[in-house]
Amino acid sequence: MTLAIFDLDNTLIQGDSDHAWGDFLVAEGVVDAREYEEANDRFYQDYLNGDLDILRYLAFALAPLAKHEPDTLYALRDRFVNERIRPLMLSKAAELLEKHRRQGDYLLIVTATNRFVTQPIADLLGVDDLIATEPEMRDGRYTGQVAGTPSFQAGKVTRLKAWLEAQGQSADNAWFYSDSHNDVPLLEQVAHPVAVDPDEKLAALARERGWPVISLRG
């Protein structure tokens, strides 16, 4: 069975779910509007630049989860997915997933965005499994801390290797689709790296390495 791996944000969906969740919390009055929005935008720019401090960002992004009961959070998340994520879904992404599905490939999303935000999106996309940054839960509540290694940059390789070992799967002849230069460590590990609507740094590297470049937009 061939593994078809996909980044999520700005690859399978036309936007960044983590940043969109922050904007949604601001719009809903769940967080302090000006302070949170400024920090959310600043961290996102750091990500685009390739110099995001992932642990500092996660301390910021996961903090709201610790302040509310899970049932409240899940109700907010349902509205978030319907109002903010569904409009970002891409028909060409669905077609690409279906192409690999018909070939009998195993569909896996590997994303730096936390599982609280991404699990319902992965469910909508109908993939077989999800590797995401894990928010810690204790006694039935989120703590605001991260559990284990964040699946970001080289952490995606670490998490994938652990997943392969646990699942008894192989990455031989695997595909990986991503838009971001932050994913170069994992792109370099697979037989079939594909740049999807890539940022400038990844587009330049793809040209240099001869990696395919595709678009799932429009």
Write the layout of secondary structure elements.
Elements: E1 3-6, H1 17-27, H2 33-49, H3 54-66, H4 70-85, H5 91-102, E2 106-114, H6 115-125, E3 129-138, E4 141-147, H7 154-167, E5 175-178, H8 184-187, E6 192-196, H9 200-209, E7 213-214
Parallel strand pairs: 1-2, 1-5, 2-3, 5-6, 6-7
Antiparallel strand pairs: 3-4
Helix pairs in contact: 1-2, 1-4, 4-6
Describe this entry's structure for a reader.
There is one protein chain. Helix 8 links the parallel strand 5 (175-178) and strand 6 (192-196). This protein has helices spanning 17-27, 33-49, 54-66, 70-85, 91-102, 115-125, 154-167, 184-187, 200-209; strands at residues 3-6, 106-114, 129-138, 141-147, 175-178, 192-196, 213-214. It contains nine helices and seven strands. 50% of the residues lie in helices and 19% in strands. It has 218 residues and is of the alpha/beta class.
Give the structure's gist in a few sentences.
The protein is of the alpha/beta class.
Features:
Rossmann fold; 7 strands; single chain; 218 residues; de novo design (two linked rop proteins); alpha/beta; 9 helices
Q: How far is the N terminus from the C terminus?
A: 31 Å
CATH C-level name of the largest domain: Alpha Beta
Backbone CA Rg: 17 Å
Mean pLDDT: 96
